[in-house]
Structures are given as structure tokens and as C-alpha cells.
Amino acid sequence: MHSNIKAASSNYTNLVDIGIGIVSGGLGGVVFWLTVLPLGVAKTLIQTNPDKNCSRNPFRILSSIYQKAGFKGCYTGLGPTVSRAFPANAATIVAWELALKMLGIKHD
């Protein structure tokens, strides 16, 4: 991303860097949560189940969710998770990049 955009906008390098951080951090966070959300759903069900004798195997829990609610059940809470993930991860990447610049640490 950086090499394609930087040449076209040499006057606005700080804005370009922030924009790239926002897009890459936000999308990275969304992709991460799309990948691990089913395990998060299983973890939440295990933690909130009052029956201490129930299965603690997340894959067995996911199988049971899939049988009852289908693929959609494995992604319960996707909307709030993604709407939180994009800005949180975008801000994290931008803060990281700005901290590196302020400390004079170069990376390629």
C-alpha cells in the first residue's frame, strides 16, 4: 500500500501514513475477529454455563451451536465485534506508527 500511494502524494506523507494505518489496522482487526469469533462464542458459552459438568471442549460446543443454529449461530455478536474492532485496531496501528516516528525508529 505504502509504495503505491507514497509516490503520488509526496506533499502529504503524514496524512498518507495515517490513512494507511487506519485502513490496514482496521481491516486487520476485522479479519482477525472474523477468523476467531466462533471460538470466542464457544468460550463465552463455556464461561457462562452454570452447569459445571458440561463439556469444556470448544470444538464440541461449536458443533452443538452449528447443529442448532447453523453457521449464523457461530457468529453471534458479529456486528458489535466488528464495529469495535475496526476503530480500535486502526487507532492501535496509527499510535504504533506515530510512536516509531517520534522515537526515530525506521522500519521498512
TrEMBL record:
A Gene Ontology cellular-component term: mitochondrial membrane
Signal peptide: none
Transmembrane parts of this sequence: 20-42
UniProt repeat feature Solcar, residue ranges: 16-102
Location relative to the cell: Mitochondrion membrane
Cited InterPro entries: MCP_dom_sf (IPR023395), MCP_transmembrane (IPR018108), Mitochondrial_Carrier (IPR050567)
Topology term for the membrane: Multi-pass membrane protein
Keyword terms of this UniProt record: Membrane, Mitochondrion, Repeat, Transmembrane, Transmembrane helix, Transport
Main localization of the protein described in the UniProt heading: mitochondrion
Gene3D superfamilies in UniProt: Mitochondrial carrier domain
PANTHER family: MITOCHONDRIAL ARGININE TRANSPORTER BAC1, MITOCHONDRIAL BASIC AMINO ACIDS TRANSPORTER-RELATED
Family: Belongs to the mitochondrial carrier (TC 2.A.29) family.
Protein name: Uncharacterized protein
